[in-house]
């Protein structure tokens, strides 16, 4: 049952696309997508099954993350750093994810942060993508803004996204052409994204709350560009800036994408993160009416592996385009190089 856009879900499960009604504005499928699936021997119902398994796996990973909280508090009081402990949990969760997915889908590929080998490329064939803990610094410090991010890609494009922050009980999910949802696992309530069905106006960067991250590269041209754009976003227009509402550094690219999909962040500008950081959130954002352009000027069709992303929330298409081009003008002829 749905009331004012909220779906009742008493069993605390994610939105079940086979039982919960999908709003009429979201197509259940398209002929072109059916053909794309058929090329890989898949049907739309196969995506539903894969989605349900990814949700179950994400919840298992979330329970592992929650159980780690006490161990990290003890380690923080007795050790100089907790990086080894973070690595242990990263590896443990990814191992669990990989084992369960390979058992269910032995013919599908797997690309994970912890098992990634330099030079490996995302395949056209069905591939699961996993970031076991996105926002590891937050995780190690007890900051409740981290998540497991899972995706299924076809032809190097995400068609399922599942991002789960167990500390807030926020479960973001999407299947291509079936909409994006936020399920509050503490209550079971599920909300179709974006939360505002009629988007607020977004005429310029001045109206935007912008997410930006800092990364580990703190020198060189990329760092100089990141600092300068951050400064211009905050600076008054009289001094050559864009004077955006404010900026947020949340510490998780996966959740930044989801916050843009939800509509609580307007845009997210980022260069340097990896496919596993954004694949799940990308699927969720697009199903919520958002777009992904490149962080670098002039590229409206960035690749999932390109490491350059400018995520923009649901809005009128001309407003989305105008905000992207405004940021690109601030960058001028400068570009990230990765």
Automatic annotation (TrEMBL):
E.C. number(s) listed in UniProt: 3.1.3.25
Gene3D superfamilies assigned to the protein according to its UniProt record, in alphabetical order: 3.40.190.80, Fructose-1,6-Bisphosphatase, subunit A, domain 1
GO aspect biological process, one term: inositol metabolic process
Domain of life: Eukaryota
Molecular function in Gene Ontology: inositol monophosphate 1-phosphatase activity; metal ion binding
Reactions performed catalytically: a myo-inositol phosphate + H2O = myo-inositol + phosphate
UniProt-annotated stretches for the region Disordered: 1-26
Binding-site list for Mg(2+): 113, 131, 133-134, 277
Keywords attached to this entry: Hydrolase, Magnesium, Metal-binding
Cofactors, names only: Mg(2+)
Pathway participation: Polyol metabolism; myo-inositol biosynthesis; myo-inositol from D-glucose 6-phosphate: step 2/2
Family label: Belongs to the inositol monophosphatase superfamily.
Name of the protein in its database record: Inositol-1-monophosphatase
Organism whose genome encodes this protein: Setomelanomma holmii
Lineage of the species this protein comes from: Eukaryota, Fungi, Dikarya, Ascomycota, Pezizomycotina
């Amino acid at each position: 049952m749905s009331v004012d856009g909220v779906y009742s879900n008493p069993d605390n499960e994610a939105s079940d696309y086979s039982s919960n009604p999908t709003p009429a504005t979201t197509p259940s499928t398209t002929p072109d997508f059916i053909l794309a699936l058929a090329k890989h021997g898949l049907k739309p119902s196969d995506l539903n099954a894969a989605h349900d398994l990814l949700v179950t796996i994400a919840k298992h990973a979330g329970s592992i993350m929650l159980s780690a909280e006490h161990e990290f508090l003890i380690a923080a009081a007795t050790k100089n750093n907790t990086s080894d402990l973070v690595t242990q949990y990263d590896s443990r969760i990814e191992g669990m994810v990989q084992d369960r997915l390979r058992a269910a889908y032995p013919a599908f590929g797997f690309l994970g942060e912890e098992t990634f080998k330099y030079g490996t490329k995302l395949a056209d064939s069905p591939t699961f993508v996993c970031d076991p803990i996105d926002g590891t610094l937050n995780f190690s410090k007890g900051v409740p803004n981290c998540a497991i991010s899972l995706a299924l890609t076809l032809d190097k494009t995400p068609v399922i996204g599942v991002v789960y922050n167990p500390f807030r009980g926020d479960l973001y999910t999407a299947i291509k052409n079936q909409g994006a949802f936020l399920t509050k696992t503490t209550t079971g309530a599920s909300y179709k994204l974006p939360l505002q069905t009629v988007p607020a106006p977004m005429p310029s960067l001045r109206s935007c709350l912008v997410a930006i991250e800092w990364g580990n590269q703190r020198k060189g041209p990329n760092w100089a560009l990141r600092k300068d754009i951050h400064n211009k976003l905050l600076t008054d227009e009289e001094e050559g800036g864009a004077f955006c509402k404010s900026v947020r550094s949340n510490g998780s690219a996966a959740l930044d994408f989801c916050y843009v999909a939800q509509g609580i962040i307007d845009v997210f500008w980022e260069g340097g993160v990896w496919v596993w950081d954004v694949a799940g959130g990308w699927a969720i954002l697009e199903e919520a009416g958002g777009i992904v352009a490149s962080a670098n000027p002039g590229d409206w069709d960035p690749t999932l592996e390109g490491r350059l992303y400018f995520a923009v929330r649901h809005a009128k298409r001309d407003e989305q385009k105008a905000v992207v081009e405004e940021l690109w003008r601030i960058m001028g002829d400068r570009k990230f190089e990765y």
